[in-house]
Write a structure and sequence with these properties.
3 helices; about 160 residues; mainly alpha; single chain
Length: about 160
């Protein structure tokens, strides 16, 4: 039927007359070629439209799926980076605490050894220990204050 659209008017008219003559001969009306051609053309156009619509929907679905995957990937990446940052911060704090503890223990050990060896300066050493205790208390309070301040800052940073 695709050839019918390319026929001249004279050829179309001749074919239409043949179909009319055949309808009279058969005794039943037959569809003319133009009607058959238009039906076939409409079917072809509908098929093409549906295929194009399906392709468009598939393309949109794939694009949305890709965007969703990229969004999920970026969110996961951000969460991973935040987790790594928090773990590294925690490790840094633990390392600093352990180093300070080791330094404090070494210092206390040396001072105690010195106190044991210098019995003649017992009173002076007693004053030194009291001073050391007060300083350690002050350092502990300052350290607690700084840790609390740092935790507050980290919490504020994470909320943002």
């Amino acid at each position: 039927m695709s050839w019918f659209g390319n026929l001249t008017l004279k050829s179309r008219t001749s074919l239409s007359q043949i179909i009319k003559w055949s309808s009279r001969l058969i005794g039943e009306s037959q569809l003319n070629l133009e009607t058959l051609y238009l039906r076939q053309l409409q079917l072809n156009l509908e098929t093409l439209y549906l295929r194009q619509l399906q392709l468009n929907l598939e393309t949109l679905y794939l694009r949305q799926l890709q965007l969703n995957l990229e969004t999920l990937y970026l969110r996961q990446l951000q969460l991973n980076l935040e987790t790594l940052y928090l773990r590294q911060s925690q490790l840094n704090m633990e390392t600093l605490c352990l180093r300070q503890l080791q330094l404090n223990l070494e210092t206390l050990y040396l001072r105690q050894l010195q106190l044991n060896l210098e019995t003649l300066y017992l009173r002076q050493l007693q004053l030194n220990l009291e001073t050391l205790y007060l300083r350690q208390l002050q350092l502990s309070l300052e350290t607690l204050y700084l840790r609390q301040l740092q935790l507050n800052l980290e919490t504020l940073y994470l909320r943002q």
